Amino acid sequence: MLPRFGAAPGVRFLSSIISQRLRHVSAPTLQKSASKLAGPSSSQLQQKRHGTISVFGPFDPPKQLTFQQVEERVLKAVKAWDRFPQDRVNLLSMEARFIEDLGFDSLDHVEIVMALEDEFGFEIPDKDAERLKTPRDVFKYICEREDVYE
Asked: Start and end of every Carrier domain (predicted)?
């Protein structure tokens, strides 16, 4: 029987009900029930194991960009923009001005900056984005930000 001294009224009530119900149950039956409640043994756990976790790594450090890679990726991001006019592909160069030469408006400029952010994986603040008038400006900005020197 469970101790009743110092227990809360709810616990005393519960212990009296349990002791009344368990009077007719034999000790071996209680031990079996208790072992089932305790959970599987360690040998049962090892039998149920389906695989192991493999740890991989260490991760390679990011590769250093080159001037050529940055230039190619800038032009690729601008060309891949979904609203880039296909009749102006031949006008696209590193010195082509987005608004004057390629005919983009301010909203187009914002979308191109977003495409460049996606391509290079970092955010370009609005203050800096306003200064990016040509792909060459974007190239210089990225090279400066990513420490590209070759």
From this structure: 68-146
Contact present, 118 and 82 (Cβ < 8 Å)? no
Per-residue b or e along 84-112, where b marks 16 or more CB atoms closer than 10 Å to that residue's CB: beeeeeeebeeebebeeebebeeebbebb
* Assigned token pair, 102: 């390629």
Give the residue extent of every domain in the chain: 67-145
Fold exhibited by the domain 67-145 = 1.10.1200
Contact 2, 19 (CB under 8 A): yes
Identify the CA nearest to 83 among candidates 106, 108, 100: 108
**Residue-level pLDDT, tens digit, the chain, 150 residues:** 555 555 566 666 666 766 666 666 666 665 666 556 566 666 655 555 556 666 666 666 668 899 999 999 999 999 999 899 889 999 999 999 999 999 999 999 999 999 999 999 999 999 999 999 999 999 999 999 999 988
Contacts made by residues 113-118, CB under 8 angstroms, sequence distance 24+ = 115/77, 115/78, 115/80, 115/81, 116/74, 116/77, 116/78, 116/142, 118/77
The dihedral of CA 67, 73, 78, 79: what is its sign? positive
